[in-house]
Amino acid sequence: MTVFSWLDTVHHDGSPLYVQPQAAGLGAQVTLRLRVSQAAPIRQVFIRICPDGEQTMVPMQPAEQQAAVQWWQGQITLSMPRTGYRFWLLTDDGGWWFSQAGIAQATPTDTSDFRMLANFAAPDWVRSSVFYQIFPDRFADGDPANNVQSGEYLCNGQPVIARPWGAPPRSHQESGGVEFFGGDLPGITQHLDYLSDLGVNALYLNPIFSAPSNHKYDTADYRTVDPHFGGDAALVELRAATAARDMRLMLDIVLNHCGVAHHWFTAAQADRSAPSADFFVWHDHPDDYESWLGHTSLPKLNYASAHLRQEIYAGEDAIIRHWLRPPYSIDGWRLDVANMLARQGATQLGHKIGRALRRAVKHENPDAYLLGEHFYDGTAHLGGDELDASMNYRGFTFPLLQWLAGFDMASVWNLPWADTARLPTAALVEQWRAFLAAIPWQIALQQFNLLNSHDTPRLRTIVNDDLDLLRVAVTLQMTFPGVPSIYYGDEVGMAGGGDPFCRACMDWNSATWDHELRDWYKAIIALRRSSPALSSGGLQLLYGAEHTLAFMRAHPAESLLVIASRAHGPPPLIPLHAAGLPDGTQLRRVGSNIVLTVANGHLHPPANGPLASIWRVIEGDSNE
Known about the structure:
It is built from 15 helices and 38 strands. With 624 residues, it is α+β, with helices and mostly antiparallel strands.
């Protein structure tokens, strides 16, 4: 008979099974619950909080018992905007601390505490969303009359080039940034029924504001939609069409820098006393100025300027506010290079500007989603007073892709420290756990979980056309806490290397599609959108060894077990004692009639099954 440690059975997370109410204001009482094995030698449990910096120990009481499970329950008061808490377990063998970092006898730091935010205005629609990212020039040409013509103007000194739809993108050394394929906003509007049929209910568009390049990250005018994308009227039409389908719309904006064609910069470069001169940092006017990573085509904005802050977010008609209002009424902003925003040497205003941006956005629409790009550790911006979420590259995407295929973004950038060895399974679990432990659970459910984007190779290319591994990646994306985002065309099997080859034209010839793959995407998107466990359930990481990992997403309405492997072979036994599922509990594989029964604290997945599978605890047999 397998012997389990009671320490593995201690569990708490921010989901409705453990925290009630889920949202509360200052001064409210919140009930916290802890689940342990009945065999645990626990004499007493306390909740440790630290109101106004002074430790307080709140006693918990034994609550109900279920099968092999003992629940403990206690109440705390949210006396601060952000309340950290952890648990102190007194046992026959001494005391144990339990925090988001796990259970240990050593005292953890406060940074690993569970956290609850008071008066937190979460954009609730986000949690039930599946995003679809579109690079506008490459999705669909809805109005050929607005297409860029070859030689029409210069972009960074090069004449722009019109390319036929479907031709392969050329490298940046050739014409990458100045070639156009004709995609526009009318093209997106015309294909909304396709997107609705796929099941996505939120769009994320790369920049659409006036700019000379095809990617539009070199903004020339924040207050106009690029005429080659259809202009402002096309955005109004797209907004109305998405609203009619109950589909959300998030736009991308570059607030760290603008393009050299922006009138702020041209005026400042021409006249050192121009009103916009202090929007930039001049080392030697007019040609030596601070720019993004040394790219002189992208002058960096200087947030020490009060005038700039008024233009961007603080003024009554500020740019960030303008597009949140009718008739555009966008539902969210994605902030480009949020990790660098308002940071320059001795001037470090990132958090100050982040908080101010949030106040401006939430003043216009408390339900708007504020997302920041961050390729590294963005958790410092995720305390509830800045970003709603970050693009979760380091907390989800990159460790998963390195585990699956040895993918390292540093290798795409030809950096000498790239590590292309496959990440051990235990290290993947450790990295996921560490990034989740650093943020409140309310934020974790809003994190933007992507598998590829306009900045990375496509998923199919990363896994070397192995569709089994692709399905593993997407299954984990759809079942991990946070909000999934699909990059356009992935669902029909598009491949492509790093920028610009990941930005190929959407293939609208359905005869070339992988229809089986698209049908599979539709099914798992439908599951993600319909499942309360996947949108707001908790997370318990149960197993991570060799080539396989497993976790539970539990909610009062349902519990789902996710098992994923990166290699074919005899499946391991999955220990479920820690999940509180007693022997005899039955689980049915989603999408099939296969039913398994927990025996000796384990589940034995069938041989020759898919590398990734989702199992629903059959009602009546769960610990809920």
